[in-house]
Amino acid sequence: MRFLQLTSIIGLLIQAQQTLSLTNPIRENPAEPDIFYDDGHYYMTYTSGDRIENTRASVIEDLRRGETKTIWTDSNEGRNDAMWAPEVHRVDGAWGGSIWSASRTGTVCPAIAKLDTKNWTVDQWHVISSPDQPWEKKMGGGKSGLGINEAPFPLYHGDDIWITFSASHCKDPGYSLSLLKLNGGDPLQKTSWDKSGPIVSAAGGNYGVGHNAFFPLARREASLDLFEKNLFHATKKSEGNCGPDRFAMIQQVIFDKDGNPSFDQPGALDAETAPPSGQ
User: Which residues form a coiled coil (predicted)?
Assistant: First the structure.
């Protein structure tokens, strides 16, 4: 009887171990991935060539083969190659989405504005970061330029607020993630944000690492304190890539004893990492 009990316990431990790991990349070809969890499913939204797609699955590992739908195409074919960064959010109980597009070139910077969700009005916007560091000005082919700060995404822990953003051009292997931390001042003022970076960059055969989103523990009420996973894209191409040759990866975010986030660097492809707790 003890042998049977021990065998059963070992079997359960093996099964638990199998459910506590996932393999990167989590999905091939998506660029600028965003993710949220709702009603028992993960939903990952991303750019796929000339369209925006969404893939859903009940567990993270199944996003690589989950149910996929096209959720946006532009009737104006001239704009189909100039839309990026799809995001889906729930605000005051209502779902909404956004995409980023541009009709001209120039310096790209993150900005903040006051949002009145009752009347859906947006106040004047304020730039909170501009590319003024060497790691933000890599434009591909070994050249430097105006630089890029794009794809901001918030991270909350306790009373602290950070914003990650992607620095440099996606066609440069040095495309990477950087960090802004609110230092206690007015969030609408650039001087209230302390910049550091790069915090996640090329490693493990992954290049052009950037455009991230954070998401919380699975199967729990979404809370600002529960963000623990970092979703981002990368490419195998050592020169960087702005096209479909990118893939989505997930790495851990850990907060130290002082409450500051620590970001895992991209691991080797096909390496296992722990999925969100509760899965």
Answer: none
Rg, the chain, Cα only: 20
Phi, psi angles (nearest 5°) of residue 246? -130, 165
C-alpha separations of 234 from 177, 179, 221, 224, 265 in Å: 11, 18, 30, 26, 12
Which stretch, 46-50, 189-193, 227-231, 251-255, has highest mean pLDDT? Answer: 189-193
β-strand partners of 154: 163
User: Which CA distances in Å does 111 have to 15, 171, 202?
Assistant: 46, 23, 26
DSSP 190-236: GGGEEEEEEEE-SBTTBEEEEEEEEEE-TTS---GGGEEEEEEEEES
How far apart, in whole angstroms, are the C-alpha atoms of residue 87 and residue 166?
15
Residue 45 and residue 33 in contact, taking contact as beta carbons nearer than 8 Å? yes
Query: Class assignment of domain 2-273?
Result: mainly beta
b/e per residue, 254-267, with b = 16+ CB within 10 A?
ebeeeeebebbebb
| pTM score, whole prediction | 0.85
Mean pLDDT along residues 246-256: 91
Token output for 171: 């066609």
Which of 162-176, 203-217, 243-257: highest mean pLDDT? 162-176
Q: How far apart are CA 52 and CA 46, in angstroms?
A: 6
